[in-house]
Amino acid sequence: MSVKILALDTATENCSVALISGDQVFARSEVAPRDHTKKILPMVDEVLKEAGLTLAEVDALAFGRGPGSFTGVRIGIGIAQGLAFGAELPMIGISTLAAMAEGSFRKHGHTEVACAIDARMSEVYWGRFSRQENGTWAEVDAECVIPPSELVQQIEKDQSVWHLAGTGWGAYQETLSELSLDLGSSESDVLYPEAIDIAYLAQFEWVNGNTVDAEHASPVYLRDKVTWKKLPGRE
User: What is the dihedral of CA 169, 175, 176, 180, to 10 degrees?
Assistant: First the structure.
């Protein structure tokens, strides 16, 4: 793919920016829970300068649409919209949970990933993803926000070995260790979504024409979607 996509994410404690241009990748990332607004725009400037591009030369602007911190998600989408409006760029929203699944594949080659972000309030943002042959990810469990104890009661063991991603596993380790799933390990080094993975997944959305104008870009919070759901055909 020769598309040029700039991606940014501030939905969690991590702040990251990445630019994919052909087969080149330029990225910045830093865990900075209270400094997203200070760091994100300088990161954008750095990757554009490193790539030798202006914002107007980018094809699309991708962003972590959530789930994640309410404030973090709003910061990310607000800055992304501002950049997109100014440069008249289409936008692509990418699930932060799916981005962590992609990060697990990028780092370790994992193709079955169970993602859990600590949602505070004794809940996790949850989703399971299975990598397809074309590089996209299929949802095995629909994204939701749910107490870990309810997740343990509802999920049944399957034939896959699931690898972990996200801060939820550490925050609720004792409860989530009771899941009946076959887990590949007890911990993960993929704790946060990264813009590099958001940019990668956004390439597929671009090819399929799944972009929106800046004024129609929207976040996903999941607080109004509290029920875990096994997707059809995944029994």
Answer: 170
CA distance 157 to 216: 39
Q: What is the pLDDT of residues 113-132, one digit of tens each?
A: 999 999 999 999 999 999 99
Task: Measure the CA–CA gap between 232 and 235, rounded to whole angstroms.
Answer: 7
Place of tokens 């990332």: 29
Domain covering 4-95+193-216 in this structure, CATH number: 3.30.420.40
| In the chain, domain spans | 4-95+193-216, 97-183
CATH class of 97-183: alpha beta
Matching CATH topology for 4-95+193-216 and 97-183?
yes
Instruction: Express each pLDDT in 73-89 by its tens digit.
Output: 999 999 999 999 999 99
Q: Pull the structure tokens for residue 210.
A: 């799944």
Q: pTM of the prediction?
A: 0.93
Distance CA 144, CA 125 (A): 6
Tokens at 128, concatenated: 């399971």
What are the start-end ranges of the H helices in 89-182? 96-108, 148-154, 168-171, 173-176
Three-state DSSP class for residue 162:
strand
Q: What does the pLDDT look like over 201-210, one tens digit per residue?
A: 999 999 999 9
Residue 153 contacts by C-beta under 8 Å, 6 or more apart in sequence? none
Q: Which two tokens stand for residue 212?
A: 């929106």
Rounded mean pLDDT of 135-143? 96
Q: Note whether 234 and 137 are within 8 A (CB).
A: no
Burial of 54 (0-12, 13-18, 19+ CB in 10 A): exposed
At 228 the pLDDT is 47
Give the chain's length. 235
